[in-house]
Structures are given as structure tokens and as C-alpha cells.
Amino acid sequence: MDLTWSPEEEAFRRAAREWLAAHVPSPPLPSGDTRAGFAAHLAWERELFAARWSVVSWPEEYGGRGASLWEWLIFEEEYHRAGAPARVTQNGVFLLAPTLFRFGTAEQRARLLPRIAAAEDLWAQGWSEPEAGSDLAALRSRAVRADGGWRLTGHKTWTTRGAFCTHLFGLFRTGPQDARHRALTYFLVPLDAPGVTVRGFQRLDGDEGFAEVFLDDVFVPDADVLGEVGQGWTVAMATTGSERGLTLRSPGRFLHTAERLLELAREVGSGAHRDRVAQAWIDAQAYQWFTLEQVTAIAGGHEVGAEASLAKLFWSELDVRLHETAAELLGPEAELAGPWSKGFLFSLAGPIYAGTNEIQRNIVAERLLGLPRR
Amino acid sequence: MRFRVAEVDAALAEAAGGVLAKLTEPADAVWRGLAGAGVLGALVPGEAGLDENCLPPLMETLGHAGVAVPAAETIAVGAPLLAELPVLGGVLDGSVLLTVSLDTEAPVPFAADADLFVVGAGDRLRLFRREELGITPLASVDASRKLARLSVPSRGGVVVGEGASVVETAWLRGVLATAGLLVGLGGRMVELTVAYVRQREQFGVPVGSFQAVKHALADVVVELRFARASVLAAGWAQAAGEADTGVRTSAAKVLASEAARSTARAAIQCHGAMGYTTEYELHRYAKRAWALAADWGGPAEHRALVARALGLP
Ligand SMILES: Cc1cc2nc3c(=O)[nH]c(=O)nc-3n(C[C@H](O)[C@H](O)[C@H](O)COP(=O)(O)OP(=O)(O)OC[C@H]3O[C@@H](n4cnc5c(N)ncnc54)[C@H](O)[C@@H]3O)c2cc1C
């Protein structure tokens, strides 16, 4: 065990901290899940990119700093500590980009990655459909062969910030329905293509952060198939590891919420809440240690796989507990609109998206413990 | 930055694991076997040359085996205090049984059988021989812990440690070791339960294919894995002398105690009536888990210590 940072890592931390201290918008931006807020967030993300802090772990040729995983974690910790805005480009940066690095052609990487880094192309995730949530392999949106490409028809939903994005990555059926996950293909679709209709709708917190996307005979060239035809499931599952595990859920986010909770407790708390606050803080620390353990394993060449489900279960339940504890502390004030009530409503989504926690428990039981499927 | 057990520490745990794979009973034979493998002197200055980083993996291995030996008391706390004394040889070869009590109000594990006792009072740690103390054996849920209540004379004994920081170190090592044992116990209970629910059939299928059973086990695995990472982090903090060592150690003990209790509960439930019998080995691990969850400070006590360190009202 060696939990000390090297002098280079400490220097990296200082540089990130200094830059963030000088640039993080104050007062905080409006929610990025509203149209006006989204525009303000984009301006911020372009500033981040101009200073090369938007994709620190990417190679320099794509706009990154070639930072190590450890440095990336450090950056995330500083980012959250500084109270910097949530990343509205996260689907492109944290879900599509890792998939492009792994499955994309050289042409796709060169064409798409710099635009993701620069917050020029804004990507939405088009997986779920009205009849295909947990049972994603049941999806019905189809792609049929056309001259030089494919024609896409179908209906995607619960697409985060779909109404504000410019592009969609998603799964479409390229074979028979009963072939389930064996006949899917991963497509990249511009949302301004003829035949695309996007309708925004409200989330639980009232923001217009969701959208349905209707596709009616939308043409996509062969160059925008990601991975092999018929291999969409494999490509998509490689992405779920990122979604559940590390990349979206840096411990910095929960450590920062735990710190804010401590401040709140010192301000308004009484002995009645002491245990819950202490426990919430203990759990946020545990999440950090577990993450460091996983990052060490990844850095040593280990594939995280089903272990990402352990992390997903823990961070999502932790986020709910942190916010419920804040609500306890706030008492009747908890009802007022503000960062804590907003955060509480959002925390309730964690156990649902990126594969519900019930599905994660099945994965842990079947893949890590070897219990029989049914 | 490297969150991984170092080779020397893993080697010690492996040596212990090798002994435990060959010897499972009786406890004193296992203890002598561990002594023979050099495990007992892990933290004794001038012996193995290890620090607290070795405790989490070692204790996890010992907890997993579930043998009734004074692992936390002797290896983590007592033996390192005897470095200068002639009795050390007997303790390290397993012929002299040592236990520790930093809270003389509480029942003391292994006290009914021990030959030597390290007893803490105030800022002082003293070593007594059995005949110098009053010892009242107590019946307990985990009968193999050989509990007794001590009556300690206000004078006498040999001073083996003095000063608040020496006592604090002894306490933190005991807490850490106990947390490690709990993680190991939890892991063993999960293994037993997984094996059982895979072969036990009801309604024509293994009960392990039922989602209620799967989810109960998945939840405790999450608790255990996060507790384990926290125990490793606490071990490192102790060895490195980090400023927040006390908080990290308390946090680890809270998580390990809660995880082991949840696991005992889920394991018994998933075994059905088979879990509610002493015919089968699960009960031993569950009883040890309940005992150790409360030993060296239960979750409420450690949570309160964390709360105080964080300045909570
Ligand atoms: C905030 C938020 C953002 C989202 N963003 C996107 C996005 O950008 N793109 C996108 O494609 N999707 C997105 N989603 C959708 C998300 O992926 C789905 O909600 C999720 O996969 C669950 O599907 P469902 O909602 O249809 O629930 P259902 O599958 O209908 O499940 C309903 C309930 O039944 C349970 N259940 C279902 N199957 C099982 C089973 N086998 N065993 C046990 N329990 C089961 C579930 O756990 C759940 O409790 C988002 C969701 C939320 C909440």
C-alpha cells in the first residue's frame, strides 16, 4: 500500500486547483438540463477546452493532456471541490469517446474526438425505447441496408438532454427481432438529419432534461457505423462499464457532497443527526478507497467488468443517503427549491439509470458470485 | 499511489493461510502452527520487520478461517509490547497464551485460558501473570472466545507501555485487526451461503436462482467489499502515521462491523432452518461476527468518535 501522491501528481493538482479557482463561474450556472442553462454550460465547457482541461486523460492530439488515471482522479476531485458545473457533454466525453477509442476507425477518431473535446458536437445516448428499458435487447428501432449506408426508423426515449444535443449514438436492429442482442448495430446519427423529430419533456425535477427521438427513414452512411455490423451489443456493453463505474462517478463528487453535508450539519444540525451525518461521511470515504483500489487494478491491466456493478450500487445508494440526510438536517426548509432539494431529486435517478440497481444486483449475484440464472 | 497489498504483507497472510489450510482444529494446535510460521511476531520490533499494513490481509485470512485464537490481542496489540521481555519467546512460539484488555469493565476474550495479560488503565499498560489477577469465567454466545471478567490490582505488574500515544497506538491496532477479522468472517459466510443456495433446491430449482436470495447476497457483498477497502486504507494510515489515522480506523471498524452483521443475518436467512442449527458450521462464524462487531468499540461508539473528530454538533 502506498497512498501518497508523487511530486508530479501534487504539481498537477496545484495547477488544476489554481486554474479552477480563477475560472469556475460564480454564482453557479443555472441547471444544464434547461435550454438557457445548457447554453451557459457550453460556454463554460469551451473555456475548459481552451485551457485543455476538458478531457485531461486523452492524448494531446485530440485536445487532452495525456494525463494518467491517477491524475484524472485528482482533476475530478479538484473539479468537484471547486464547485465547478456538472458536465453537460458527459455522454460524449465519458460514454461515446471511450467507445470510439476502443472500437472506432482511425477516420472516426480523427473526425469525432476533437469535436467532442471542444464541445462542438453534443452527443445524446439513444439506447432506451418505450418497450426496451432494462430489457434493452428487446429494442425495436430498425436499420435497413440502403445504398452506401442505412435507413433508420424507430423511437428512442428518456434521452438525457436530447432536445439540446446535436448528435445521437444508439443501438438499432439490423437483423430479426428474435435474435435479440445478436442482431444489433451501433450507429452515430446527426439530430438535424431529415426524418429526425425530437420532443423534449420534463424530468421529476421539472427541467426539460429528457427527450424522445423519433426516426423516420433517416439515412446514415456506412462511415457512421461504430464497430462491426451486428456487433452493437458488444460495443454498447463496453460502454456500460464506464457508465456504471469509474468515469462518470469520480469519488470527488461524493466527497464534495459529504463535505457540504458536514458544513450544513455544523451550521444547523443538532445531536439528533450526528450518527447519520457521520455515517454518510464514512461511506463517501469508503467509496474513495474502493475507487483507488479499482484504479490500481485497472492501471495494472485488470478489466473491471462486473465489478463496476458493485461501484454503481454503492455510489447511487450513497448519493440518496447523502441527500436524505441533508433533508433531515434542513427539516421543513428541505422543501424549498435549492441545491439540496435539486440534488435530492437527481439522486433518485441514480438507482434507475445506467442499469437499475435490481439489474446490478443480478449481475453481482450471477457474474461475481456464480449464482444460477433463471 | 498504489492501493494494493504489498508483497511482504501478502506473503505473511499466505503463510498463515497455508497453516490454516492444513490445521483447522483444535485452536491451540492452529495457534502453534501460526507461531511456527512466524505469524505471531509480525509487528514485534526486530522480528518480521512489518508494520500495520500487514494487519488487514493477515486478519482477513484468520477471520476467514474462524479459528478461536487471540489474533487481534496477541499479534496486533500484545506481542509488540513485550519486545524487551524474556516472556516474549514463549508468546511467539505459542506455548504461552497472551490476551489484552484496554477496557477492564468489559468481558475479556481468551481470559479464561490466558497465561499472561496486558491490561490498560489510564496512560499505562501493564503485564500481569495469571495468578496476579482475579479471573471469573463467563458463559457467552460464542463459547470459543473463553471470556472472563478480570479484577486487576491497582499496583503490581510490569509496565510495558506508557503515555497516551502508546496506549492510543495499541488501541488503534486492536480496532484495525478486529475490523480485518470481521471482513474475513463475512467473506467466509458469503462463500458458505453461495455454496449452499446453489445446491439446495425448492420448487424444482436451486434457491440461489431466486432473486430475493440473489439480491440479499449482492447487497452484503457490496458492504463487505467497501468495508475491506476502508480497512486497507486504515492500515496504511496507521503505518504512515497520517494525522487522521484515528478517524480512518474508526470508519473502517464501523463499516466492517455493520457489514459482518448484515452478512451474518443474510447468511442465516438464506440457509433457512439449516442456518438455525449448530449441526452445521455457519453458526460459528455468525457468532464470532456478532462478538467482534461489538469488540474494540461497536459501530455506535466508533461513529461517535468520527463525529467528534469531524466537529459535528
Ligand atoms: C435521469 C435518467 C436519465 C436517463 N438517460 C438516458 C439516456 O440518456 N439514454 C437512454 O437511452 N436511456 C436513459 N435513461 C433510461 C434508463 O436507461 C432506463 O430507465 C433504465 O434502463 C431502466 O429502464 P426502465 O426505465 O424502462 O425500467 P423498467 O425496465 O421498466 O423497470 C421497472 C422496474 O422493474 C425492475 N425490473 C425490470 N427488470 C427486472 C429484472 N429482470 N429483475 C428485477 N427487477 C427488474 C426495474 O429494476 C425497475 O425497478 C435515463 C433514465 C433516467 C432516470
UniProtKB/TrEMBL annotation, chain A:
Record-given protein name: Acyl-CoA dehydrogenase family protein
A family per Pfam: Acyl-CoA_dh_1
Signal peptide: none
Cellular component, GO, one term: plasma membrane
Boundaries of every Acyl-CoA dehydrogenase/oxidase N-terminal domain copy: 6-120
Entry superkingdom: Bacteria
Keywords: FAD, Flavoprotein, Oxidoreductase
Cofactor(s) essential for the protein: FAD
Highest classification ranks of the organism: Bacteria, Bacillati, Actinomycetota, Actinomycetes, Kitasatosporales
Domain (Acyl-CoA dehydrogenase/oxidase C-terminal): residue spans on this chain: 230-369
Family: Belongs to the acyl-CoA dehydrogenase family.
Residue ranges of every copy of the Acyl-CoA oxidase/dehydrogenase middle domain listed in the record: 124-218
Automatic annotation (TrEMBL), chain B:
GO molecular function, one term: acyl-CoA dehydrogenase activity
Keyword list, A-Z: FAD, Flavoprotein, Oxidoreductase
Oxidoreductase recorded as keyword: yes
Record protein name field: Acyl-CoA dehydrogenase
Lineage of the organism: Bacteria, Bacillati, Actinomycetota, Actinomycetes, Kitasatosporales
PANTHER family referenced in this protein's UniProt entry, alphabetically: ACYL-COA DEHYDROGENASE, ACYL-COA DEHYDROGENASE FADE28
InterPro entries found in the cross-reference section: AcylCo_DH-like_C, AcylCo_DH/oxidase_C
Listed SUPFAM superfamilies: Acyl-CoA dehydrogenase C-terminal domain-like
Transmembrane region(s): none
Keyword Flavoprotein part of the UniProt annotation: yes
Acyl-CoA dehydrogenase/oxidase C-terminal domain ranges (all copies): 161-310
